[in-house]
Structure formats: structure tokens, C-alpha cells
## 1
Amino acid sequence: MKPSGRIWHVLPLAMGAALLFSALGCANIFVARHKVLVDAIAAPGAVKPTGISYRLLAKKSVLNNASGQASVIEACVDAALSTKGMFKPPATVAPDIFIVVGYGVDQTPKIDAAARETFLQLSARSNEGKSIDAATGTEIWDVRVAVLGIAGRMETAMPLLAAVAADYMGTDTKLETRIEIPQNAPVIGAVRETAIKTLETRAAAAPKAAGAETNAEAPSAAAAANAAVTPVRTK
């Protein structure tokens, strides 16, 4: 039997439509992505934290680190944790957990700049003793995230790193895992913008030095905000 001319006419149209929808569905392969290294561990029974209070503490190894703006790191981590429903309690109230923050850049001379890690590490400890300012409890979870070859200041990577770290809190990757995050991911932009607002608010609220006509802390806060708003570039 001779095939119907109508069927053979419709078939190419259907195939064309399928190819079009397939192409649209694959459009995201052209979106630039950040490659992030994630290494997370968690104590048995640990769950992803949400709706709990926390207080940040700086890791001893970064207390004297002048290469980064601590205010930017703090603002970015706070912004990322807020996306998980976590919050800081009043200064006189004990938090549910303490989170020790570490960060830095690999400065090994023999390592090429494009291969150097910029990292952020968050380590959570319980607070059974209801301490106000000391992390004396057991470790609940630890997550370390890093990117390679940052083009620019270390702070520019913090919105990205904080956002990824927040996603892996309370999980166990078993081994270091490499993931890819779209550079235009909404969560990164949200963390960046929230951090900027926090830094700007702090700068505006900082008390003026006696007799000064301008806010003494404004320049450093403005520089920190500028560092946070600049989108990070990774290789």
C-alpha cells in the first residue's frame, strides 16, 4: 500500500519540533559554571541544620590573617545561613551551636597561581553547656569548600563558597567531591546582595569618631562591600 502523503508531510514537522525542544532543554550546557571542591563530614545522626541559632567564631589560624576582609566573610556566611532558616541570637543568649570559620588561600610558592585554592571552612559544635561565647561542645559537622585560580581578591569568592557550604552542612560526602554551580545561580546573587546590605548597614550605623565629620569606619566597610559585590571569576 502506498504511504499516505499526509503522514509523510506531518512527520518532518514533528521531528523538527522534537529537535527544537531538545535544543531548548540543552541550552543550560552553554551557561558558564564554577567548579567547586566540597569535602564534608558529619557525626552519626547529624541532620541538615535549619531554624536554629548560631554564633560564628574565627578559627585561630585566621585571626591574624590580614589578607582578607573578615567583615566580608562574616557577612557572606551569615547571608548563606539565613537562606537555611538559621539566625543569630541576641548577644546575651546562648546559641544552639557554634560555627568555627576558617578561610584562606594556598600560598605554596611552587604551586601555580591558577592551581591555588581559595577556601572556606565551617565547623559546627554543639552547645549543651549553654555557653555564650565559647565552643566547648562536640563537633557535629564540618564542611570545606574551595575553588581554584581566583582572578582577583579572595573576598570575591565568598558569596559562592558560603552558598555551597550552606548546602552541604550536616552531610557526609565521604571523599572530596567536585561539583559545578552555574555562575548565574540565584542563590549566589542572593548571598552577595544580602552581604552588601549588611555591610552598608554596619557602615551607616558605626559611631562617628569624636569631632570627625565623616564615619571613620565607612572607608573599610565600603571597600568590603565593593569586594563582595564583584562577581567572582574562576577557571
## 2
Amino acid sequence: MHIKRSLKNGLYVSIRLVFIGLAKLLFKFEVRGAEHIPRTGAAIIASNHASYLDPPLIGMAIPRPIFYFAKEELFRTLLGSALKIVNAIPVNRDQLDRKTLRTVLSVLAQGEMILMFPEGTRSETGDLQKGRPGTGFIAYQAKVPVVPAYVGGSFDILPRGGKFFRFAQCTVTFGPAIDFSAYFAAARTKDMYERMSGEIMLSIERLKGAE
């Protein structure tokens, strides 16, 4: 089991390095605020979502393996094996079901890092959208650090509905982990999850404004 995991991590690192080289060459890829990424232990990376490129770009920006969500239908295609190598977790596009939730909490309980998009879906304009309660819910359940991230330029390279890449500079910026300790000590409610996701989006907005 340990050997299998080591091989998988080795493939992940190799793929990451290849894509970093391509991204720097084609899109002048740059990472800012990398010091805010925990070197060890569980954490949620919460980012804006403007393009299909956001997951791989954030994966390139983080030096340790990170888990992602991917539509469960993709695991039934030729991409299925590749998605497993890059730690993708199958998810129902319409809702976060109990099976997926258990998987996510198990991944975090093992000290891993997972990428989440509080907006839930890609922006049609590239602008930030309102956060949905799902990320707040998982943050509350797992009680792990939530690190905000802003991907700039991905919409210009491949917007929603776009079929071809365009050349533009791309930057991934990370901010300090959000302090949710006051929420963790309170009784859980749907309103609280929404407020937590709202705070995450405000942190992402600040990162956008600082670019």
C-alpha cells in the first residue's frame, strides 16, 4: 500500500513539473503568497472558479499533492485513470452527497489538502460569484485551516464556453488562513455555513484587489 502510494505521488510530482514548465513558457505562470500554504497537515484551499484550468493551475502552485473534485461522469471516460493519479474525487454535479462527504472528510482526517470552489461553478463573466454553503459546511465539519486563493488570468486563457486557449499571463495568489475558531465553537446552522462561505469569498476578493 505504501509503495503504491509512493508511486502515485511520484507520478503526481512528475506531471506537476511538466505542466509548470509549460505554464511558465506559455502563460508566464507566477505564484504569490506561497508562504501561506501549510507544509504539512490537513487544509482546504478555497479558490475562485473562472475556468477549467483553475484546478491544474492551483495544483502547480502547491508543492505538495492536493485532492480535487471532478464530475463523476468523467471517471467513466478515458480520463478516469488520469484523474485518479492526480487525486480527483468523483462528485455528483448537482449535490454533495453523503458518500462524497465521507470521502472528503476522510481525506482531510488523513492530513491531506483539498481544493474547493465556494462559488460551486465556473463564472460566466470571470467576476466573483456568491459563495454557496457547501465549503463552509465542510470547513465546519472538518475544522481545518481554510486558505483563500485567487487565480488571475485563467478566464482570459480559457473562459467558460471557450474552445481554444488564448495567451495571457496567469497568477495564483494565496492569502493567510481564515480564522474560523469562533464558528467552530458555535452550534451549526445553514446560515452559519453561508456566512463562513461569505467570509471565504471576501478573502478571495481581497486577494483579487491586491493584484
